[in-house]
Fold this sequence. Notes:
- The protein has helices spanning 5-17, 130-142, 269-272, and strands at 36-46, 56-67, 70-75, 78-84, 91-97, 101-106, 113-120, 154-166, 171-184, 194-206, 210-221, 230-233, 236-239, 242-252, 257-266, 275-286.
- It is built from 3 helices and 16 strands.
Amino acid sequence: MRPTRAMRSLLMLAPLVLPSVARAQRYWHDEQGRNALRIDFGKPFLKGEGDSWLTGAILPSMSIRAGEGIRVEADVPFMRAGYDFGGTVGDKSSFRVGNPYIGLRIGDDTKMWSGTLGFRVPLNAKPDTPIASRTVSVGTLTTFDEYEAYESNTMTVRTNMEARWVSANHVLLGAKAGPSVLITTDGNPQAQTDIFFDYGGRLGYESEGSQFTVALTGRYLVTPADRKFERCQDSGCSVQRFHHAATGTVELRYGTLRPRLSLRIPFNKDIRDITGGILTVGLSVAR
Length: 287
């Protein structure tokens, strides 16, 4: 299928932005023909004891049509952790704001192809207490393949292309891929800019009243070792350049309301040692 004029504009713009240095707030675009306001609560099943039940991340987001073939997408991530440190410290809790996202999706909703170009603003400052550090860790675990949404002192530039196809018998196929550039903003002259390549595919069923999908997503670290992907042992450090996860999602569509439930299972041992999975409950109002 030939790209539209808007898509060609995005393809020309992306090379100008990336050398100078954005998956959107929802991994997949499923709001064809609608504006949507959404909220999601993600809870990682953390291993060990001490974490309160209301430990996780909250993500309000939106996807609004701004013109023919153009959407504005945005989110503001929040994270919350409660933990019993024991001893004289006892129970502590913290609530923090992550790094907001703003971007454009370009492509006609009736066509197979669309693309995004967006930025995460480095609003989350470096934590200065143990509970604040744990809160940031909870946020990054909840969305480990977009941990920069909750990482401190990090600006992100992100772009991708997505293909979406639904057959006459409601079979849904999708794929997407693109780079993410993470830039440290803490003033450290030796800080490294990290480049990741994000990719994913999905298969499912979509009708007017429901959607059921299973997806495999991944992320590859293009640049040299990043501290988020190192496992250090007595013999030294090994870099985890690939991270993969499987996600199952169910969404029901009652008119303008779209409740959903998803479960994400990480494949990599470094993440599975901390959490066995992430359960997300969400609701969209789409018109």
